[in-house]
Amino acid sequence: MSHLPGPTQSGIDLRVVPQPFYRRNLPHLQRDCKPHFLTFCTYQRWTLPDWARTVVMESCFRANTWTIDLRVVVVMPDHVHMIFTPLIDIDEVRGVFAGADHEKVSKELQRI
Predict the structure, then answer these.
(1) Model confidence at 14, in pLDDT bands (50, 70, 90)?
(2) Residue 7 backbone dihedrals phi, psi, to 5 degrees
(3) What structural domains does the chain harbor?
């Protein structure tokens, strides 16, 4: 018969409580020369019109070869999935996508 472990000698309870959904704030790790999977969402999961999704796609293609080695990008109505190998620090890569194109879309949608 299988059971969950109880408290250890140090007094720390090791039992895992099942949760239907949770978010974690994991550290952002970068492994050089390894593909990264990145997902980012629109604010409050707003649905972007077609022209805005095109701007996002073009931004990803522009970043290819000078900040990332882009393997695949999928632009959905309210989020984006990317697989890429960073050519610069990962924090700088995120900044590329939060730059001028972000402001352009927000301004056109009158959200800033």
Answers:
(1) low
(2) -60, 145
(3) 36-108 (3.30.70)
